[in-house]
Write a structure and sequence with these properties.
The protein contains one helix and eight strands. It is mainly beta and about 120 residues long. It has a domain of about 80 residues: Immunoglobulin-like (Sandwich), CATH 2.60.40. The strands form three sheets. A four-stranded antiparallel beta sheet has the order 4-3-6-7, with no helix packed on it. Strands 1-5 form a two-stranded antiparallel ribbon. Strand 3 and strand 4 form a beta hairpin. The longest helix is centred in the N-terminal third of the chain and has 6 residues. The relative contact order is 0.19.
């Protein structure tokens, strides 16, 4: 079973600022399933299933972040290596933080374009 798990999973590192966010995941094509708990940040080299996943980062008094990616048999993106979380109410309504240009391979991280307006907020 251990050999099979290493064949169908990848090591993932997830850091948040601030630390202590809960990390959950589920298969992308099963949005109605229950979120599965992965751990609390910082996570280093935690095995996650390969495939297209939904990732959710939760921390009390901070805006929940949802991320989806990557393609089948690829690693989760480097976008999760260092995620800045925003306090609840610190961003304008219906706005989300997106990475600086060159920090990600998506047009709007964390996958909110098309459903919400995006706002570029510089890191301080």
């Amino acid at each position: 079973m251990i050999k099979l798990w290493t064949a169908v999973s990848s090591k993932v590192t997830i850091n948040t600022e601030p630390q202590g966010a809960e990390v959950f995941w589920k298969d992308y094509d099963k949005p109605d399933t229950t979120w599965r708990w992965a751990g609390i940040t910082p996570l280093k080299d935690v095995r996650m299933p390969r495939g297209y996943l939904r990732i959710q980062l939760r921390k009390n008094n901070y805006q929940t972040i949802e991320y989806s990616g990557p393609q089948l048999y690829e690693r989760l993106g480097a976008q999760l290596a260092n995620v800045k979380m925003d306090k609840t109410g610190s961003l304008p309504e219906n706005m989300v933080r997106i990475a600086k240009a060159g920090d990600h391979d998506a047009d709007c991280w964390p996958g909110a374009c098309g459903t919400k307006r995006c706002l570029r907020i510089p890191d301080r």
